[in-house]
Structure formats: C-alpha cells, structure tokens
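Lab notebook, design round three. We kept the backbone fixed and only want residue identities now. Task for the bench partner: fill in a sequence for the structure below.
Input structure tokens:
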C-alpha cells in the first residue's frame, strides 16, 4: 500500500477491493469469532484489542447504516455533539446502505463503545440499537490495522504494512 495514512478521503479507494475479496498481497488477515462472548463484553473486547495497539496516529470509522438518515444523524448529534462526521451516502430504503465517515486523532472509547453496543444490540434485538456495520482503520507508524465488524458473531481483521 502506498498511502501512509488512511482517512475518510481515501478509505474506499484503499480498502474497497480488500474488503470484497478479503485478502491482498503482503496483507495478513484473520477472522475473530466472538459469538461465545457475552453481549455486554463484545464491545469491550474490540476496544481492548484496539487500545492495546501502540503509537496510534489516527483512526477512521466508516459506519454503514440501514436506518433513516435522520436517526443516525440525531444519534450522533445528541450523544456526540463535538464529533465531526461526513455522510457520504444516504440510506436508500433497503436498496443501499447509508455511509458515514468519522476521522479521529485518538481512540475515543466512549464513542466506539456506544457505536459497537448499538451494533451488537441490533443483532440480538436489544435496545438501544441501530442497524450498523462498523469498519475501523487504525493508523500506526508503518502499519494499518483494519477491522470489519460485520455482526455479533465476529469480525475480520487485516494487518496492512505501509511502505514509504
């Protein structure tokens, strides 16, 4: 990968193919099964994994949503009024997921926990919930870690070396 830093402006360009075919040259990948972890511990596990990474330079969240645009926007504005986001796609009533990007300089544990709990709760028909898929790019010094959290059963993880 030639891009050293992933953000909302180049996320799709760099990861679209990888997220589709699930592999790439020089990229380590795996799938973590979290099905047997208690619902209340799933978000904590993901946060622990990300927070254990050293030297985080930046994080980009791509949130795909199958809800009315106003619902996800209101959720973000009420719960995280200082969080800047960019809606790049509107939800098209079952035909197309909506998409929101958020760029962050640090790991915002409160934000991530809230988003993940809403995601996992939806899968288990608990409240509060939203129909989301969360993709997280973590920029490190010469590595990018990408997580694709697809449902309550698990997520894909990619280790992507960055070459100067």
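Proposed sequence:
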């Amino acid at each position: 990968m030639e891009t050293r830093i992933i953000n909302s402006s180049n996320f799709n360009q760099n990861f679209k193919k990888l997220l589709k075919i699930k592999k790439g040259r020089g990229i380590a990948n795996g799938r973590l099964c979290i099905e047997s972890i208690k619902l209340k511990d799933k978000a904590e596990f993901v946060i622990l994994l990300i927070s254990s990474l050293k030297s985080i330079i930046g994080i980009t969240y791509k949130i795909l949503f199958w809800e009315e645009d106003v619902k996800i926007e209101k959720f973000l504005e009420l719960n995280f009024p200082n969080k800047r986001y960019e809606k790049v796609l509107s939800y098209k009533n079952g035909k197309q997921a909506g998409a929101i990007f958020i760029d962050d300089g640090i790991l915002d544990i409160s934000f991530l926990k809230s988003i993940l709990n809403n995601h996992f709760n939806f899968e288990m028909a608990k409240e509060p919930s939203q129909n989301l898929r969360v993709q997280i790019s973590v920029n490190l010094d010469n590595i990018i870690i990408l997580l694709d959290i697809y449902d309550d059963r698990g997520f894909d993880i990619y280790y992507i070396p960055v070459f100067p």
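Keep this in mind before ordering anything: The longest helix spans residues 109-123.
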